[in-house]
Amino acid sequence: MFLSVAELVALTGYKRRSCMIRWLRENGFAFPIGADGYPQVLKEHVRLLLCRQPVKPRSIPNLAVLKKPDAANGPSPQIHRELPERVNFSHGAYFFAPPNGPRIHLGREFGEAMAKWAGIVARPRKIATMAEVMGRYMLEVATRKAPATYRDNIREMAKLRPVFGQMKPGEITAPDIYAYMDARGAPVRANREKALLSHVFSYAIRWGITRDNPCRNVKRNPEKPRGRYIEDVELEAFKAIAGPFLRNYVDFKYLTGMRKGDILRLRVDSLTDEGVSVVQSKTGGRLVYLWTPELRAVVERVRTMPRYALGVNLFCTRRGNPYTTSGFDSIWQRAMRKALVKGLLAERFTEHDIRAKTATDDPENAQKRLGHKTRSTTDRYIKVHQIEKVAALTRKS
Fold first, then answer.
1. 79 vs 87, 90, 158, 175, 299, CA distance in Å?
2. pTM (predicted TM-score)
3. What local confidence, expressed as pLDDT, does residue 269 receive?
């Protein structure tokens, strides 16, 4: 029942009773002291303690990587740097280079290329860490999103993976996520990355990998809505310095309020007798912008711009190729810098600010024109740009 003195000596390595007792207490043994002064240690207790599996320490987030400077904190990378591993953009098309064998042509359209890539790459069979969960999410879920959203997810995942990738899904807690958001140093970007991580966990639950979403009770960082409103005189000043393509683009953007990606992908066959028909990439909703004399005049100017070749897209290069997002952004930034240097503008505005101006200038039709599903989304565009006016106090005589 109890260990003999010889067994106590063999277990502890000590002959003196005081040394035996100290060793046993330091190693987690519970025992009473007998009348002879020796510890009374149950043999069953020794067997349970010696056979017990050691408890592995919980993995913790690797927050140190957030302090290292990288490209994600600088200017937006080019589109070919935001592609999955072994996928590259070359000569106007996307290619996949497998470990063995020739490279595979994926297509010229981003969405088509990512769908084809997802069908080629095998899903990871065994998923144990968050890095593997994130990999499956990017393969099966992210590739079905709009191109701009997918590229955002790649940038966001590049921040999340080094911090949480080595952890198991069940190890991540709400305090871990708060620690990440505090260490991130960019409150708004941290909100977007937390939202992506929450979506990853929702799919991990769906796939039976984990039971809980630790992001559920994590509050977002406070955000200050962008309040830049473009005055009419500012928009006209920018158009005066811009080239014909960008000048027509700004007019079309202001009249329709369409998203940048939808405008750049707009095809000539979308111009119907009724108006400009578009399927919104973000919501999937179909919208027709009815013809007005001003809209028809802008579209006509775009179609009659000098080109070496006709393209299928309404807004296309001189060679008839569609504009890439990075290519358009370069054109926009060059024109904006020129307007600032020449003193035509006192403050920079973004391409997206034109969409907000469209909503603010016509709030009654803003929800339909912007293609929002809820009025609350549209109100966020409008309220921040509206200026309340109140008369000054009149002194009583």
1. 11, 11, 15, 34, 28
2. 0.62
3. 92
